[in-house]
Amino acid sequence: MTTTPALEVSARDLDDLRRRVRETRWAQPWPVGGWEAGADQDELRRLAAYWADGFDWEEQRRRIERLPWGSTTLDGIPLAYLRFDAEGSDGSDRPARLPIVLTNGWPSSALELVEVARRLAAPSQFGGDAADATTVIVPALPGFPFSPQRASHDDQTHELWHRLMTDVLGFDRYAAHGGDLGAGITSRLAQAHPEAVAGIHLLAVAAPAHVDETTLTDEERRYLAAVQAWVAEEGGYQHEQQTRPLTLAPALSDSPVGLLAWILEKHRAWSDCAGEVSRVFSDDYLLTLASLYWFTNSIGTSFRPYWEYAAGRTVRVERVSVPTAVAVFPHDLTQPPRSWAERSYDVTRYTAMPRGGHFAPHEAPELLAADIVEFLRSLV
Description:
There is one protein chain. By secondary structure, the chain is of the alpha/beta class. The chain is built from 16 helices and eight strands. The protein has an eight-stranded mixed sheet, sandwiched between helices. Helix 14 links the parallel strand 7 and strand 8. About 45% of the residues are buried.
């Protein structure tokens, strides 16, 4: 693949970003520091200073454009994707394992999945067995960096994924993986197309459509209590993005530092970083992500899946009948027990990971890739 996404950023746009960062109108300081009330202002100022004077966007752009990009248009919807062919294949040979489509969550991009994709497509380069190699497709979510938003609220992303895998790329059967928003897309994909989706691997699961509370186990009750506590403590962003996203979007689309704060705070709170975001995410990683959202003006459109779900415009997961693997990372937003997942899925594999959080594909790609490999072996 030689096609690259539209990452041409003019000198004027780059200068405008740097000017906006330098001229940020900072909020009045509070008599509380650190992360207690949101993004730590000292850390935010430090990152902003590097963004304005030091961060090399051109280097990051060249790195991104060297990736194996492809693109297509489905019903007038442009879609960018990464394709990592299985090692030993010229792209036309069928790999030993099923091809797999990987889907990221929010606030992220397709780039988060690159290291997992590399390990799945070329396992021998990471100490694995070349016989496990499979072709990996990583589509860029519509409305996120690299792919423009869908034209209609009625368009369903999982149907775009199925058409990409079958009509465009020619795969009769395939597997799928997803976390966060990507887990929902993956679940709906398997529910809608069990004849093509051989199995799915998830980092999060959909809640059962109907629950008889008298059947809940003690473990499930503790899990639901933990979810309620998380929503009360951490769920403000979700409520805003579900209910009034177009009130928030102009602010984050106009202030690069506001955008950075929104992204930064989540990467610290949701990762296995022990409170120090730099232990897991480099400055260049965070600023590349923020720059991608900024230059593509996609933070507002990335909110659409939240609003569409809350507004009832997204297909609900009722029951997924294909084999399902669930990998639970200890610092992810929630840790659903196996019995809870089994209420909606045919769970054939359940793994409690030793470390990692919401951004597991970046935090622990070797753990995630190894678990996917084991699952794919069971599907062949």
